[in-house]
Structures are given as C-alpha cells and as structure tokens.
Amino acid sequence: MVTKKVVVRESFYVALLASLLIFMWLNFDPVLGAIFAVMLIFGYLLRIADYIFVDRKVNIPLVRQNLFKSALYGLISYVAFLGISSIVMGALGKTNLFAMGSVLQLLAEAQPVFAGSVFLTFVGWAILIPNVESYFSFVTMVEYIVSAFGKKFNIQLSPTNLGYIFLSVILGVAFAFFHLTAKIGLGETGFNEALILVFLFGFVSAMVVAFTKEGAATIFMHVFANAISIGLSFALFTTSQLLIYGGIAFGILFVLTKSWNIKVIRG
Prior knowledge:
It is a single chain. By secondary structure, this protein is an all-alpha fold. The protein has one domain (4-259). The protein has helices spanning 4-27, 30-53, 67-91, 100-109, 118-153, 162-182, 191-212, 216-233, 239-259. Helix 3 crosses helix 8 (216-233) and helix 5 packs antiparallel against helix 6 (162-182). The protein is globular, with a radius of gyration of 18 Å. The relative contact order is 0.17.
C-alpha cells in the first residue's frame, strides 16, 4: 500500500532533482534543462495522481529493500549490459566479439562535456540525467503502462513475460529515439553504434525493473554507466584500473548489503 510517507519522500527526491535542474538550466543548456524539467514534472504528477486517485494494480517503489542492495543490483546490471552489448556489437561487426573494452570506449566517446569541466559534467551527466531519465522512462512509464494496459495486452511485471519483453523493446526504441532527437549521448561515436548501445541500455534498464521490482537499481545502473564513461573520457582511470575499482566496489557493496539494514521508501 502506498502511504503518505512514501509520497512525501518521493516528493523530496523530485524536489532535489528539480534543484539540480535549475543548476543545469543556468550552467549548461537551457533547452536541455527544459526537456528534463518536463520529463521530471510530468513523471512526478503522473505517479502522484496515480497514488491519490487510482488503486494501482502495479506499484514500483523507488527502493524496495535497502540502498546498498539496490546499488549492488545496479552494478551487476551494468556489467550484464556490457556483456550483452559486447556480444551484439561483435555479432554486428562493430567491435570484436566479447570485447567489453571496446564497448566501454564507445560509451566514453559518446559522453558530452559540459563547459569543459569534469565537475559540471559529472553533476549533469552522472547524477542528474540518469535520475531524471530513469525515473521517467523506466519507473513512471513502466508502472503506468503495466497498470493501465497490463490486463488487456497480457503485460506483467516479470522478466519472463513476453508482453513485458516486448514492452522493454518498445521502451528501448523510445529511449534511443529520445537521445537521437535531443542529441544526447551520441558524441563522437559512430551514429549507428551509438543508437544500438542506447537501445540496448534502454532495453536492459526496463528488464532490471522487472527483475528487482523497484526503480533504484536501474537508476544506479544508469549512474554507474555514465560516471564510468565520464571517467574514461577524461582519462581519470584506464579500463584495467576500472576492473580493480569495480571489484573493490562490488566487495564493499556486498558486505554493506549483508551488514546494514536501512529504513527506506517502501511501496
């Protein structure tokens, strides 16, 4: 059951994102800031209206258990995305088969640089954009579509449900189309390669929601993906160092997941 406390906490989360959007509006690109503002406000209003006026058939909380577990799932999901992408890109002849390093390089080349600053780029691309995009595209829209049309089209919030798999494909296409029209995340990477990677990322993001039944895991996946790409694009670390840092991060998150119990938003 969705409680008033859940609504208040989600409102605080959206307000925090809105403050970052103002920062982006003033320092980066007003047009891009306006696009994300519309996404955030529309997604929030749709969920709040759903909370207040509709007895929802499907409830996707931001966090289901604890933030460390969500972050761990997000990291695992990102590695899975890299694996899937390396296979698909290799099969299409865009990279060598199973060449995760090549996929990482393509992703790094696709990141925009805001005002030539690592800090501003990180705030905009690794924190703000992943939260707004994932909140709207893979939390709000999945929840709304499955609740409103699930019975009619046999769509269930399950990774093995054919209707949901088809929905994930549609969301992946929509995610790629949005990046194409907004010119986000294409950078210097080959046009076709960028669209393929963005589509795969959208598809995997939607599937992560079905696996975890929450929004935070897919948001963390997006944050990890963009943060790592920024680090590589600014040469803050190499792919070899990334493996070491990733292993350390996995170990820390695994220990914290087992050791800590945090009270968080529940639906």
